[in-house]
Design brief:
By secondary structure, the chain is an alpha+beta fold. The protein has three helices and twelve strands. The chain folds into two domains: 41 residues, no CATH class; 130 residues, Alpha-Beta Complex (Nucleoside Triphosphate Pyrophosphohydrolase). The chain has a four-stranded mixed beta sheet with strand order 7-4-10-9, with helices on both faces. A hairpin with a 4-residue loop joins strand 5 and strand 6.
Amino acid sequence: MGNQDHWELKGTKSLRDFRTLSVQERTYLHRPSGQQKHYAVCDSADWVFVIPIRPDNQVVFIHQFRHGLGEVVLEIPGGVMDPGETPEQTAIRELREETGYVPGSLEIVGPLIPNPGLNTARYYVAVARDCNPEHEPSPEPFEEIAIELRQLDSVTSMIRTGELQHALCIAAFAISGIVPNVS
C-alpha cells in the first residue's frame, strides 16, 4: 500500500490555462529514494453527469463531438460546476442547457474520482427522474448536441455491445444503482 507521506510537493508550474482547466507541471520529491520527478496534471473544477429519466422510463442521451477523441460520442448530459454552484444546481443547469429537459426530482450520488493520476477533479452523478422537455435546448457556442431517447432497461445491453463506451457515463450508471447488472 502506498504511503502519502513518501511524497512531498516541491513546486507547481502552470503551463497553459484553458476555459475549463489548466495544465500544470508538478514536481514531487519521493522521500524514500531522494529523487524528484515531474508530473503533468490537469487542474479543473468538479463536474456533474446527469442520468435524465423521463416518466416513460426512457433515458435522455446526447451525441456530442469530443475533441480529445475527434469523434461524436454517445453520453449523458453534464458539465463543469460554476464557482459557488452545488452539484444539484449544476445538474439542473446542464440538463436544461443541453436537452431542454427539467427534472421532477433529483438525487446526487458520488463524488467519484475520474482519473487521479492526471486530473484533480471529482465528479458527481445526478439521477434526474420525471424529466420533461420544457423548452428548446440552449447549448454553449460550439456545442452541437443531438438527443437520443433509449429505454432504461436497454442500458446494460448498450454497454455490453459497446454502443455506450464513455467510461465515466458507465460508472455513473453503475453508482446510481438504477440499472441491473452494471455495478
